[in-house]
Specification:
The chain is an all-alpha fold. The protein is built from 24 helices and three strands. Strands 2-1-3 form a three-stranded mixed β-sheet.
Length: 495
């Protein structure tokens, strides 16, 4: 037997299976399947992962951007929570495969795009991750710059903003270089710390502003439903796109889950509640600054700069923690694994992390963050249209086409059933192109702008439907009987 399955339904390779793939050019230590002992992440680990990632400056700014576009506080929060509940669905669907088979995202992508074609979705996700890595470094670096200026004569140093940015960028790259286990340990301690600091900021704003009334009294700028929905749908796509990246490479983390229940409970509880709660804090604090300082201050670092030196010090620690936990977990693992997958025998995760940092600089995060339009519509909206179809293919392949049956060792063979034609599954490539084309073409046709405004959702369903249809007679499918032949009960194998 090549694989074994335990009572929780988690499939791992037997010694025989490991020996079959260890010399494959598609195999290295970072891309292998996880062992039974490595399936040790609990619900708390997944909850702390999402808490650490969701409490970040881009999430704060997302809520601020929606207010700037004309929404009132509750319209902005509902939009963000709804977007996160929607994206939670593909996150959980793709998490199942990572948990059950212990495979990282680039290996999972071989299933649908082929042994060589997997580079297409892996690199696409990696480029978006690198872009986010740069954005978070810019957010964190400029925040540190602001706080240093409020505490000292740092502002007199030539190029102080760029020094703070590159220093923070180097710190992120260094921690990422240390690998996923370092991420797990950092999230464990960072999550409760960030919750306490966020609540402390909210209590300060509530006390200083004189209650909820003055804080949340700003009305919506929209006078009709038509005006509201014109902004709501592209904003909802932006809120979905915020974590559409993780919907793809979530197997990179769920491959360590103790059970399906552990990852489902941890993620379902933490993601929508933390994103909604932290966005509310962002809106409430920014609204309170109107009452306290006479102007809306959307930059949390600028708010902290008005505090005492001791409070500024702890606030700076909080901003560093918030940015690091999001950046290293959400934005390095996927591109680093994608780079590693390009040449498994030559590249390591650490080398991938360093290359990710360099690519992030090339993507010029300072331009993306030049205004809210660039951030929400250009950045979030455009990559949502690119990643939605890949999400649709991943879901269709695992749940509708293969019905959760994967031949693990074949994922590491260059001429196996998942190599398709020359290493490429053209069914996936055509389905992806159709899913991308429909929203982009609709953007150019008068009256069809609604499709572009919902590009992630439309693209996902277009690719899902076409891929399922294209793959009906694929020779890569295995029957239930064949699946049972290659899988043994873990207990039976151990005896």
């Amino acid at each position: 037997m090549k694989t074994q399955v335990d009572s929780d339904g988690i499939v791992t390779l037997t010694k025989e299976g490991e020996n079959l793939i260890k010399d494959s050019p598609l195999f290295n230590d970072g891309l292998r399947t996880t062992t039974m002992a490595e399936h040790n992440w609990t619900s708390y680990n997944f909850a702390s992962l999402w808490i650490g990632m969701s409490i970040c400056l881009p999430a704060y700014s997302l809520a601020a951007g929606l207010i700037a576009l004309g929404m009132n506080w509750w319209q902005a929060i509902i939009t963000i929570i709804l977007g996160n509940c929607i994206v939670l669905i593909p996150i959980l669907l793709n998490s199942h495969a990572g948990t059950k088979f212990g495979i990282p995202y680039p290996v999972y992508a071989r299933l649908w795009f082929g042994s060589k074609g997997a580079h297409i979705p892996a690199v696409a996700r990696g480029l978006v991750g690198a872009g986010w890595f740069g954005i978070n470094c810019w957010f964190g670096g400029t925040a540190i710059d602001t706080l240093l200026m409020s505490m000292s004569s740092w502002g007199n140093v030539p190029g102080h903003t760029w020094i703070a940015f590159f220093g923070f960028w180097a710190l992120n790259v260094w921690i990422a270089y240390r690998g996923p286990e370092a991420i797990k340990k950092m999230e464990f301690w960072a999550a409760p710390t960030l919750i306490i600091m966020s609540l402390a900021l909210l209590i300060w704003a509530l006390t200083k502003a004189g209650g909820w009334g003055p804080m949340l009294s700003a009305p919506s700028k929209f006078t009709t439903a038509g005006e509201f929905f014109k902004v709501f749908f592209p904003s909802l796509t932006g809120a979905i796109a915020f974590w559409a990246t993780m919907a793809l490479n979530i197997p990179d983390f769920c491959r360590y889950a103790k059970s399906q229940r552990a990852q489902i409970v941890g993620q379902s509880v933490a993601l929508p509640t933390t994103m909604g709660g932290f966005s509310f804090i962002g809106v409430a604090v920014a609204s309170a600054t109107v009452v306290i300082f006479g102007e809306a201050i959307w930059d949390p670092a600028a708010v902290l700069a008005k505090f005492s030196p001791l409070a500024i010090f702890f606030g700076t620690i909080g901003i560093i923690l918030a940015t690091l936990t999001t950046n290293v977990a959400a934005n390095v693992v996927a591109p680093a694994r994608a780079i590693e997958n390009l040449s498994p025998r030559k590249m390591s995760f650490g080398a991938g992390a360093i290359i990710t940092g360099v690519v992030a600089l090339v993507m010029q995060p300072w331009y993306i963050l030049d205004n809210f339009g660039n951030y929400i519509f250009l950045w979030l909206g455009t990559y949502a249209a690119l990643l939605g179809p890949i999400d649709g293919i991943a879901i269709a392949d695992y749940w509708l086409v293969r019905k959760q049956r994967i031949h693990l060792t074949e994922l590491y063979r260059t001429n196996g059933i998942y190599s398709y034609r020359g290493g490429y599954n053209w069914n996936a490539i055509w389905a992806m192109l159709l899913g991308i084309a429909v929203p982009f073409v609709s953007r150019l046709i008068p009256g069809l702008g609604f499709i572009w405004d919902n590009a992630w959702t439309i693209g996902l369903f277009v690719s899902l439907i076409f891929y399922t249809w294209f793959m009906k007679r694929s020779s890569s499918l295995i029957s239930q009987a064949d699946y049972e032949k290659i899988t043994a009960k873990a207990e039976a194998h151990a005896s």
